[in-house]
């Protein structure tokens, strides 16, 4: 297979793919903040949480749900700042994956990535936060 990338470009493509994968895994995992509540370990990320309190109306008490799950809706995310973080981080991960997959395709397809396309992809990576 012919490649439109130099040796440096191939290394860039592989590192971009690994970094985009790590960013996406970090985005989906609920372990951004760790702590304890009601003597139980809790953690949460931008849109997932583990071991969270729920009000039991029958018993008129708060119980801990010891499982991981997503928020029921976008509005259920605790604060507007956290919602913005979810959107911005998700968009960044999407941009990083787009560039990484394009770079990987450039390793296999001749004349796919030119100098200008490489510079634009680098700018998109910068915006994506990598």
TrEMBL record:
Coiled coil: none annotated. It is found in: Membrane. The chain crosses the membrane at residues 87-109. It is a multi-pass membrane protein. Gene3D superfamilies: 1.20.140.150. Its main location: membrane. Pfam families: L_HMGIC_fpl. Keywords: Membrane, Signal, Transmembrane, Transmembrane helix. InterPro entries: LHFPL. GO terms for cellular component: membrane. The keyword Plastid does not apply. Residues 1-24 form the signal peptide. PANTHER family: LHFPL TETRASPAN SUBFAMILY MEMBER 6 PROTEIN (PTHR12489:SF12), LIPOMA HMGIC FUSION PARTNER-LIKE PROTEIN (PTHR12489). This is Lipoma HMGIC fusion partner. It comes from Engystomops pustulosus (Tungara frog).
């Amino acid at each position: 297979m012919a490649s439109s990338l130099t040796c440096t470009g191939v290394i860039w493509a592989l590192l971009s793919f690994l970094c985009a994968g790590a960013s996406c895994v970090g985005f989906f995992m609920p372990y951004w903040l760790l702590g304890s509540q009601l003597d139980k370990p809790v953690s949460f990320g931008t849109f997932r949480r583990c071991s969270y309190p729920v009000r039991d109306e029958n018993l008129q008490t708060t119980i801990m749900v010891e499982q991981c799950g997503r928020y029921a809706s976008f509005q259920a995310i605790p604060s507007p700042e956290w919602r913005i973080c979810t959107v911005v981080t998700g968009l960044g991960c999407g941009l990083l994956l787009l560039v990484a997959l394009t770079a990987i395709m450039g390793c296999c397809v001749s004349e796919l990535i030119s100098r200008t396309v490489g510079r634009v992809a680098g700018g998109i990576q910068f915006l994506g936060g990598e």
